[in-house]
Amino acid sequence: MSADANRRLLSMDLDDDEELDELDEWGNRAALDKPLTASLSIPAMFAEQAARDPGAIAVSFRGSNITYGELDQSANRLAHLLVERGVGPGQRVALLFPRSVEAVVAILGVLKTGAAYVPIDPSVPDARIEFVLSDSAPVAAISIADQMHRLSGRAVAMIDINDPTMTSQPVTPPQDEPDADDIAYLIYTSGTTGVPKGVAVPHGNVTGLLSAIDGVVDLSPGQVWTQCHSLAFDFSVWEIFGALLHGGRLVVVGESVTRSAEELHALLVDERVSVLSQTPSAFYALQAADELADSASELELELVVFGGEALEPARLKSWLTEHPVLPRLINMYGITETTVHASFREITAGDVGGVGSPIGVPLDHLAFFVLDGWLRPAPVGVVGELYVAGAGLGYGYVGRTGLSSTRFVACPFGLAGGRMYRTGDLVCWGADGQLQYVGRADEQVKIRGYRIELGEIQSALMA
Fold first, then answer.
1. Using CA atoms, how far apart are residues 171 and 80, in angstroms rounded to an integer?
2. Quick check: helix, strand or coil at residue 62?
3. pLDDT band for position 356 (50/70/90)?
4. What is one GO biological process annotated to this record (predicted)?
5. Looking at the domain assignment, is residue 303 inside a domain?
6. How many helices (H) and strands (E) does the chain have?
7. How far is 291 from 312, CA to CA, in rounded Å?
8. Is the peptide bond before 327 cis (omega within 30 degrees of 0)?
9. Separation of alpha carbons 345 and 362, rounded Å
10. Which residues fall within 8 angstroms of residue 293, CB to CB, at 6 or more apart?
11. Which range (141-145, 189-193, 425-429) has the least confidence?
């Protein structure tokens, strides 16, 4: 300033080269320079697992089990039926299912055709179903008998998952399997203008996520996972494929059980669950149920993964006192647009006395940038907006090119042509190289992990 009294403050760089290098290291900028490695599609990885141990139990639900071999054959039969009905690569298939074994079969069956699945939660109003069907333009919709009426009158091929003609279909996979860069699913998130937006995510993002997490968490065959979340919430992508692509057993948890901490605790004990994924608010209730459980009701959890909401470590003090070694508690910040999980932070007793919500460091395939309003790196301790770049970014919002261009923006930090996602989340780097979540830059809120734009509520009230 002494050399140029007219220089504007906002034009000054507050970080020197050493500090910028430190921020780049913490944010894993090197991920942008890594060559893209060939990855497998979800069906290809599942087929390998099914061939490895076809007799192992893949999915359990309300006392019934299905093995990997049976699940693979059921999905293959559905895939052939879908192909007969005109489904193929590059197309979309809507799924209207409660949590069930049939829902898992439907997902795998759709993916085996090369099409993408579009999950719709049965609890939503008919108007929401109509919107998703209209916006995503699926060529077919799959459901169960008592939900089929909600799809009637739509210009799509309707398929009952229990169609008796399925049994005559081949048990071998269809010829056209997807590539890793084909879209695997569209998941709709809330929109600021009242219009939900569908995020397109390819297979390679999912398998790449699991590969990155393998580097920090021990995922292995024989582990017992839960699916506690709706197919329309991308936490379910992690729950389902984290289990099935690692040789684990997936325990599907009915919605009524997920809403009762006592019943969920009993299920975790009875099924000897080892990997549990929860929103923080749901886990706080489970923690209270665990404190009231008798000594015979011992959990066998190895890993608890938090996501979907800001975590308050101070509320975990009693849990960490009662469970000082296992399970490991992992906070994984993430957004649908960057494929479920983006960061990793193990929560320990040392975190309970702190303030804020620690979200840690980026996973190995992603890079984080904390930027000010002029896209300059925010210094340590200074709040900025989080931008995420790397191999986990989705393709954008289907049919919303303009909106996509405002959220998936050019990345000035890596190779030419790179993109980064503007999250709208306010964060800051701590002196320890760990990120702290501060809040939102807009009016978005979260309820049970679902992103809710207040503009969508306002639009509905005014309709």
1. 9
2. coil
3. confident
4. secondary metabolite biosynthetic process
5. yes
6. 13, 23
7. 18
8. yes
9. 9
10. 265, 269
11. 189-193
Structurally, how many domains does the chain consist of? 2
In sign, the C-alpha dihedral spanning 117, 453, 360, 404 is positive
Spell out the residues 6+ positions from residue 155 whose beta carbon is closer than 8 angstroms to its own: none
Q: What is the per-residue pLDDT across 375-407, written as a single tens digit (0 to 9) for each?
A: 999 999 999 999 999 999 999 999 999 999 999
DSSP per-residue codes, 347-402: E-GGGTTS-SEEEEEE-TTEEEEEE-TTS-BPPTT--EEEEEEETT---EETT-HH
Half-sphere exposure of 266 (CA within 13 A, CB side): 5
Q: Containing domain of residue 172, as a range?
A: 64-178
User: Between 441 and 421, where is the model more confident?
Assistant: 421
Residue-wise pLDDT for 77-90, tens only, equals 999 999 999 999 99
- Yes or no: say if 163 and 143 are a contact pair by the CB < 8 Å rule: no
Amino acid code (one letter) for 13: D
Domain boundary among 110, 144, 178: 178
3-state SS, residue 43: helix
When the pLDDT of each residue in the chain is averaged and rounded to a whole number, the result is: 91
Over residues 139-168, the pLDDT tens digits come to 999 999 999 999 887 788 999 999 999 999
Q: Are 329 and 411 found together in one domain?
A: yes
Whether 267 and 331 map to the same domain: the answer is yes
Q: Is the pLDDT of residue 97 over 90?
A: yes
Dist CA 408 CA 112 (whole Å):
29
**3-class SS at 267?**
helix
342 and 261 belong to one structural domain: yes
